[in-house]
Amino acid sequence: MAGQKIGEAIKAVLDVIGLGVKYTIKPERLTIYYPYEVPDYMGRVRGWIGLWTERCTSCMICARICPTNAIKMYMEKNGRRYPGIDYGRCIMCHYCIDACPTYALYPTDIRDFAFYRHEDMMYTPDMMRKPPQVPKLVPHVVKVVHEYSKGRVVKVRVGELGEHKPLPPAPSVPVVES
Amino acid sequence: MEIPSWLLSPRLWDFLFDAVVSTIVLLTIVWAERKIAARVQMRVGPFHISPRLGGYFQLIADAVRFVMQEVIITVDSYRVLFVALPPLFVTLALMPSFMVPLSPYLALLSRPSLHYGIVMALAILFYLFIIVVGIGWAVNNRFAYIGAAREALIIAAYEIPLLDAFASMFLTYKTIDPIEIVAKQTYIVGAIYNPLAFIVYIIGVAMATSRFPFEIADYEGDVATGPYSDFSSIFLALTYAGGIYIALFSYSLLGALVFLGGWAPITPGPWPADVWGNLAAAAWVMIKTFALMLFFVFLRSVMPVARLDHTLSFSWRWLLTIALAATAVSAAEYFLL
């Protein structure tokens, strides 16, 4: 309004109304109906974190590198400490996995887990051996595609949601004896 | 079987028609506002409450939530006005729609007072936003004070041009009688008689009912819902979340009668003999009202929010000028037509 020519202002108002009418009549929707459709993560998912306790050396690098202090070292019956993750604080950055010198922590693509209570989010080392049970979702993977040549946004169905990948085999690094 | 005469009273039918249809229109318009905004913003909008109807009953769910919510009256507020003003707001917002006829024979008022129907409706609608300032005072909270002060500045800015737009149309039609006004729009509607007055009406109503881009007094980004900042539950539903839409309905009904020709192409016969003709005329008025409201709520999806000083300078500098030009056009038509 200020410093703008009147003609330009009127034209801008009419333009935006025309654009709104166009989208009202012919909408382009980006919404992914999450429980019924799953967005395509292109394989780059950082999910639930598993633990092989037999590889763990209790070096506590994971607990120290954790940016949100989600990892706490729990004393087990054998007198050693193993990491347990609080998923109420975990931001799935997987720094602990990167930092682990013996590959005791391993990544998975399990992402659709939810909890009813805060206590359920505290994973102790024995719980981290078994992946959480994830409800079966309606298997549609969709992807939002920007068709720049046509100036449109469309949602395409990429494929079916497969089963979660099997857990990776234990890497062949020598077990550090302590 | 003889139908009792009170059952065919035009007052009863006008009251019922207005009450029922305004409720349906309000439900639909809030749903339409959300859906249009969602479509323009590439979302879906209300969906899960009734998936087959596109989420139409979302508003009923919201209303149930508002009614069931705990009523909180803050300690510092002026309790009497805090409780009394929201119902008064809705009453004054809905009352103007009962003051105008919906067809030549379907009106709540009878002849000598019906002559002043539109003028009375405008007077009540301009009282309405004094109540908003009163709400800001009764809430007794600094954000409510700020919101009420902003509302008061905007009231001063839009009232004169809006009144001028209606006065121009009265000058064009040479009457203030709503039935004669509609009769004069049989071939050409008022918006074509005087487009400038129509533009002033559109902008003025957008300012009066806090439509975008003039949602300034109660814009959440600036002051937390302005004068209504301590309202919750049923109070919020009666003012900010519902009452404003009822005011929009009343303004749009006036606009449909004065600018869009009311029931113009339909000329129903006398009341009890031609019941269906009169009801069709009333339905046609409501369709025009709905179209106007649809435009006003559509603005939410495409417009930014103007700043208060920009709005005031625009209103006093340009809107008032356009309103005066509209008066000049009407004065010319008064002598030429």
Automatic annotation (TrEMBL), chain A:
Assigned keywords, A-Z: 4Fe-4S, Iron, Iron-sulfur, Metal-binding, Repeat
A single BP term in Gene Ontology: aerobic respiration
InterPro entries per record: 4Fe4S_Fe-S-bd, 4Fe4S_Fe_S_CS, NADH_quinone_OxRdtase_chainI
Domain 4Fe-4S ferredoxin-type: 47-76, 81-110
One GO cellular component term: membrane
Keyword Transmembrane listed: no
Molecular function in Gene Ontology: 4 iron, 4 sulfur cluster binding; metal ion binding; NADH dehydrogenase activity
Protein name: NADH-quinone oxidoreductase, subunit I
Source organism phylogeny: Archaea, Thermoproteota, Thermoprotei, Thermoproteales, Thermoproteaceae
UniProtKB/TrEMBL annotation, chain B:
GO biological process: aerobic respiration
UniProt main location, coarse: membrane
InterPro entries: NADH_UbQ_OxRdtase_su1/FPO (IPR001694)
MF-aspect GO terms: NADH dehydrogenase activity
Record's keyword annotation contains Chaperone: no
Membrane topology: Multi-pass membrane protein
Pfam families to which the protein is assigned, alphabetical: NADHdh
Protein name (record): NADH-quinone oxidoreductase, subunit H
Annotated source species: Thermoproteus uzoniensis (strain 768-20)
